[in-house]
Design a protein that fits this description.
Elements lengths: L2 E6 L7 H9 L4 E4 L8 E5 L2 E5 L12 E4 L4 E2 L1 H13 L8 E3 L3 E2 L2 H14 L11 H9 L12 H22 L7 H15 L3 E2 L1 H10 L4 E4 L23 H6 L8 E9 L1 E4 L12 H9 L12 E6 H10 L4 E5 L9 E10 L2 E3 L6 H5 L1 E9 L16 H14 L3 E5 L7 E3 L5
Parallel strand pairs: 1-10, 1-11, 2-5, 2-10, 5-7, 6-8, 7-9, 11-14, 13-15, 14-18
Antiparallel strand pairs: 3-4, 12-13, 15-16, 15-17, 18-19
This protein binds guanosine-5'-diphosphate (GDP), 6-O-phosphoryl inosine monophosphate and magnesium ion (MG).
Length: 427
């Protein structure tokens, strides 16, 4: 096994961090390829909880090289704080490699993210407010700052000045905010640049050399299929390509080097921020799921919107991402329900749809059609093999496998690294 991608199949927070950490023990490199510190990946090892935002979850395995690819946008202060936080807890984090082509989140990106949301009012996206969207916008608009720019003072100052000419016009004239100076931005970046310099690398070359040498590279997705700027519920999406294809553009490794694509799917559905969510439960059942699954954001602390498993959502992700395997997480959270509903179709204006509709208008009018599976009451958190699971739990997993059309190779039965049922070996 050489190249393996882990990708979210719903709206994020499926448990990608835990799955990555679990495989991290047996891989040589773990690569973040998209997003920034809008991500929050929680990993629990030996009773210790780690919340990672920019560093790949492989960092918790000492033999694994953590890599940040060109597709990521980096808030240098957040990255340094994360490295220091881990070091204080005895985790070595100085081995990180950062692509010279990755873009930097600057103070003006953070301000613009927040004021734009305020300006949008009811039409807001519900972003994480970390400056991620504005940083990607500048990248595509060819006015971004890259990691390599930090080490050429004249170029850096010119690029900041050019960006600020436009940003300050927007901030002052449209949003009525104070202007930002070149020095302010330059000084913030320079606070961290010397620490970043030794980590800067030609990541595409490093990873291709590693694959040539028979090493294993794991690509850790952030966000998820339905937050993808092309395939998600646009405009309620993030501004990057979290789908599996993004692992290639976000790291410099070609598609033929990928051997396995593992979709992470929660045993129910959650979403943070705004946007359509046909299966959302706005009643006590939704609240009960939120409580049982501790569904509050790792990054912003916002309560996550909850619903039952939506087979249309995950099946769509399975196709577009060409999943070879599904890792089903948080199955333990569903213990104790008499019936466990699953969304198997949508009703759109009286018409039954068996797949997600093509247009946003239809999705906004979709209501869920449920199938009701028998629940279970047994505690499954110490199950380690499929046979350890109660018959009704097995039937639930098998039904999801049929509906999604991809084999379920791993099942999460608790947050701990060891709380996993492996059905098929993933490496
Ligand atoms: P990510 O963004 O996809 O990495 O997911 P998050 O870390 O934001 O959210 C997943 C949450 O569920 C974290 O708090 C994990 O510790 C926790 N978690 C992951 N897998 C399981 C599982 O199988 N069971 C339970 N109960 N919790 C899990
Ligand atoms: P992980 O990797 C869940 C959501 C935000 C918002 C939208 C746009 O932990 O699964 P942004 O700040 O990216 O411009 O916000 O995307 N979002 C996430 N939701 N998990 C994430 O990451 C997310 N990253 C962004 O809530 O709706
Ligand atoms: Mg998360």
């Amino acid at each position: 096994m050489a190249g393996i991608i882990i990708v979210g199949t719903q709206w994020g927070d499926e448990g990608k961090g835990k799955a990555t950490d679990q495989l991290g023990e047996r891989v040589d490199f773990v690569v973040r390829y998209s997003g920034g510190n809008n991500a929050g990946h929680t990993v629990v090892v030996g009773g210790e909880t780690y919340a990672l935002h920019l560093l790949p979850s492989g960092i918790l395995n000492p033999n694994c090289v953590p890599v940040i690819g060109n597709g990521v946008v980096i808030d240098l202060g957040v990255l340094c704080a994360e490295i220091d936080g881990l070091a204080a807890r005895g985790v070595r984090a100085d081995q990180v490699l950062i692509s010279a082509n990755a873009h930097v989140i600057t103070p003006y990106h953070r301000v613009i993210d927040r004021v734009t949301e305020r300006f949008l009012g009811k039409r807001k996206i519900g972003t994480t407010g970390r400056g991620v969207g504005p940083a990607y916008a500048d990248k595509v608009n060819r006015m971004g700052i890259r990691i390599q720019d930090l080490f050429d003072e004249s170029i850096l100052r010119q690029k900041i000045a050019a960006a600020l000419e436009q940003k300050n016009a927007l901030l002052v004239k449209v949003y009525n905010r104070p202007a930002i100076t070149v020095d302010e931005v330059y000084d913030e970046l320079m606070t961290y640049a010397p620490r970043i310099q030794p980590m800067m690398a030609d990541v595409a070359t490093v990873l291709n050399d590693a694959l040539d040498a028979g090493r294993t590279v794991l690509f850790e997705g952030a966000q998820a299929h339905h937050l993808d700027v092309d395939f998600g519920t646009y405009p309620y999406v993030t501004s990057s390509s979290p789908i599996a294809a993004g692992a290639c553009t976000g790291s410099g490794v070609g598609p033929t080097r990928i051997d396995r694509i593992i979709g992470i799917a929660k045993a129910y559905t959650t979403r943070v921020g705004e946007g359509p969510f046909p299966g959302e439960l706005l009643d006590d059942t939704g609240e009960a799921l939120r409580r049982a699954g501790a569904e509050y954001g790792t990054t912003t602390g916002r309560p996550r919107r909850c619903g039952w498993f939506d087979a249309l959502v995950v099946r769509q992700a399975a196709r577009v991402n060409a999943l070879t395997d599904v890792f089903l997480t948080k199955l333990d959270v569903l213990t104790g329900w008499d019936k466990v509903p699953v969304v198997v179709a949508y009703d759109v204006n009286g018409v039954r749809l068996d797949a997600m509709p093509m247009t946003q208008t239809e999705l906004h009018h979709a209501t869920p059609v449920y199938e009701y599976m028998d629940g279970w009451t047994e505690d499954i958190s110490s199950a380690r093999t499929f046979a350890d699971l109660p018959a009704n739990t097995q039937a639930y997993v098998k039904r999801l496998e049929d509906l999604v059309g991809v084999r379920i190779s791993g099942i999460g039965v608790g947050p701990g690294r060891e709380q996993t049922v492996m059905v098929h070996d993933l490496l």
